């Protein structure tokens, strides 16, 4: 089989699993290059459907050998069997080059100055903020962000032929689970890496936090000699890894020991304001229109990299003020009878706690917050059960649904949504378990009050019930 080391002679690409957020972003990049794009996926509604339709990128339903005609390259998702998918098998029979998403993303970045954003939580938003700063600052850049949509940029992926920068989300998950467990981000060779935080998020791949940290350290060691690691210095797991890292780096955060320190945080309804200092000297005052201290940290990481690239402060401020968030990251869905509905992708205990804390600070202590949580994957729920149970303290009412099983795993009878709800009840008085997410709107109609804040949360398909909730209010 021919090995692909350049996009120069690639005129057509088939994406197996095109509706995954990372795959859609890469498909948009390919289309920008003038490459003919085809794809396939399961018969289900995804958050990427709207963008694919807007870009007039069509997809076939289900994974079948006959879907693969004669593209110059097939890019395979890590889910739905990964490299064992029937379309991959067919491509190999026809001697069509095959790459996983991780490998292909590395290929798209190859001739650019790579900016890789990694971490368990925050990498999507930080990547999107950077892309927004660059765009409104008039800086030509490419990007591939694993999200349905960036507000106000639109498509999650863009390839700029003029610019030499490429912003990419860097995922530590397995390239193709069970077949090739190498981390997806190992195919990126960045000049700059931003690391938001290191947590134990994938117990089906990494045994513990120490195993996770070793993987991140190996990735950090790929940074070019004249590059930088920009890392959240408030995270203890990050600091442990830094002890073994010999390359150039900057830390950022609220702590006094950080190279870039955040001060003067003020939270007002509709915006966050803060100051950034570099080694004791004030760099500027900034404003963002998204909630949460975690988003102030995300914005600061983007500010640090922008300053390393000598982007003027006024251009950075302009980009930050234009940024309105991304799809499924504290996304405002709608309002009815003074009740507001939001949706968030938080699926790790640390993310849940941060998001709910942000909501509490944003809306005030007197607002009633109802969170509807759908845990993602049996392995994560089981391994982090006790951490999940203690992550909902800022919610007034918690509704737990059945676990959203990943396409990459089998059902585990030792863990369930009901078990999670029971564990949460040890720390929280108002917890309900509703097996079927689509029955949650009826419960909301029964218990809902005027001016509630309702947040659907999880990495699965819990977002699909939002319109039903709005209709019942």
Helix content bin: 25-40%
Radius of gyration: 22 Å
Spatial strand sequence of the major β-sheet? 8-7-9-6-12-13-14-15-16-17
Overall mean confidence score, pLDDT: 93
Q: What is the rounded distance between the termini?
A: 57 Å
How would you classify the helix and strand content by structural class?
alpha/beta
Beta fraction: 15-25%
How would a crystallographer describe the biggest sheet? 10 strands, mixed
What is the approximate shape? globular
Number of extended strands: 23
Low-confidence stretches: none
The number of distinct helices, counting runs of at least 4 residues, comes to 15
What are the salient characteristics of this protein?
24% strand; globular
Describe what this molecule looks like in 3D.
It is built from 15 helices and 23 strands. The model has no long low-confidence stretch (mean pLDDT 93). 30% of the residues lie in helices and 24% in strands. Helix 1 runs parallel beside helix 4 (101-109), helix 5 packs across helix 8 and helix 5 packs across helix 9 (313-322). Strand 2 (36-41), helix 2 (49-54) and strand 3 (60-61) form a beta-alpha-beta unit. It starts with 11 loop residues before the first strand and ends with a helix. The chain has helices at 21-32, 49-54, 86-93, 101-109, 123-136, 209-220, 236-242, 293-308, 313-322, 349-363, 378-383, 385-389, 417-424, 440-447, 466-472, and strands spanning 12-16, 36-41, 60-61, 73-76, 98-100, 113-118, 141-144, 157-158, 165-169, 174-176, 180-183, 192-195, 228-232, 249-253, 260-268, 271-278, 281-288, 331-336, 339-344, 369-373, 397-400, 431-433, 453-457. With 473 residues, it is α/β, with parallel strands linked by helices. The strands form four sheets. Strands 8-7-9-6-12-13-14-15-16-17 form a ten-stranded mixed β-sheet.
């Amino acid at each position: 089989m021919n090995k692909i080391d350049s996009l120069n002679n690639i005129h057509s690409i088939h994406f197996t699993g095109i509706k995954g957020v990372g795959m859609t972003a890469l498909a948009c990049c390919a289309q920008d290059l003038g490459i003919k794009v085809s794809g396939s996926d399961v018969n289900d509604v995804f958050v990427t459907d709207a963008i694919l339709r807007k870009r007039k990128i069509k997809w076939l339903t289900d994974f079948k050998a006959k879907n693969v005609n004669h593209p110059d390259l097939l890019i395979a998702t890590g889910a739905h069997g990964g490299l064992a998918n029937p379309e991959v098998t067919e491509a190999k029979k026809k001697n069509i080059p095959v790459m996983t998403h991780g490998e292909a993303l590395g290929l798209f970045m190859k001739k650019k100055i790579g900016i890789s954003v990694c971490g368990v939580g925050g990498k999507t938003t930080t990547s999107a903020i950077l892309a927004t700063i660059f765009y409104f600052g008039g800086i030509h850049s490419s990007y591939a962000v694993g999200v349905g949509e960036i507000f106000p940029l639109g498509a999650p992926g863009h390839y700029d032929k003029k610019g030499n920068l490429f912003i990419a989300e860097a995922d530590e998950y397995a390239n193709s689970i069970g077949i090739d467990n190498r981390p997806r981000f190992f195919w990126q060779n960045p000049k700059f890496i931003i690391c938001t935080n290191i947590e134990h998020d994938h117990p089906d791949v990494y045994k513990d936090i120490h195993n996770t940290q070793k993987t991140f350290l190996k990735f950090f060691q790929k940074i070019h000699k004249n590059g930088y690691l920009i890392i959240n210095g408030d995270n203890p797991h990050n600091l442990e890894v830094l002890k073994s890292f010999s390359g150039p780096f900057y830390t950022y955060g609220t702590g006094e020991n950080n190279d870039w320190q955040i001060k003067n945080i003020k939270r007002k309804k509709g915006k966050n304001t803060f100051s950034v200092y570099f080694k004791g000297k004030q760099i500027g005052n900034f404003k963002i229109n998204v909630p949460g201290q975690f988003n102030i940290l995300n914005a600061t990481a983007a500010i640090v990299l922008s300053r390393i690239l000598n982007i003027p402060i006024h251009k950075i401020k302009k980009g930050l003020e234009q940024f309105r968030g991304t799809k499924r990251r504290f996304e405002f869905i709608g309002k009815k009878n003074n009740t507001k509905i939001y949706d968030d992708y938080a699926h790790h205990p640390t993310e849940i706690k941060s998001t709910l804390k942000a909501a509490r600070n944003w809306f005030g202590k007197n607002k009633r917050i109802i969170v509807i949580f759908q845990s993602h994957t049996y392995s994560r729920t089981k391994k982090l059960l006790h951490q999940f149970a203690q992550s909902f303290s800022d919610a007034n009412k918690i509704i737990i649904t059945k676990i959203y099983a990943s396409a990459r795993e089998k059902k585990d009878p030792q863990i369930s949504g009901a078990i999670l709800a029971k564990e949460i009840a040890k720390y929280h008085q108002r917890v309900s378990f509703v097996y079927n997410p689509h029955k949650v709107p009826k419960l909301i109609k029964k218990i809902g009050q005027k001016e509630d804040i309702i947040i659907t949360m999880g990495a699965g398909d819990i977002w699909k019930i939002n319109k039903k909730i709005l209709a019942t209010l």
